[in-house]
Amino acid sequence: MKNYKLQRFEGYQLYYMLMYFLSQTGLRISEALALRWTDIEGNKVTVERQTSRDNNNRLKLTTLKNTSSYRIIRLNDDLLRELKKFKLKQNELILSDKRFQKNEEGIMFQNYLGNLLYVNR
């Protein structure tokens, strides 16, 4: 996964970072895809939303299903280091390539158009 390269944006290791993040945190993919950079404070991430589909099959951010799903998870040093590199690359692409759009909500795992990633089920 680490060697997989997006055709348009070499060095933007979106899928590697997502898989690594999921493996280190145990989050559901719908929770990880809804995370914003502001959800990380120090070495912790706050989980308080998820992605889901509306009646027209459009992707949206929603609240979690029950109160026990709201939680704070500690991030290890290796994951934090990788996240910092990923964010730097993301910001570099936003600033240097007009094709790479910024997600206005600060979503961590955005595609190059600035949209939420979605999972086909």
From TrEMBL:
Single Gene Ontology BP annotation: DNA integration
Keyword Membrane: no
GO MF terms held by the record: DNA binding
Keyword vocabulary terms for this entry: DNA recombination
InterPro entries per the UniProt record, alphabetical: DNA_brk_join_enz, Integrase-like_cat_sf
Record-given protein name: BH3465 protein
Source species taxonomy: Bacteria, Bacillati, Bacillota, Bacilli, Bacillales
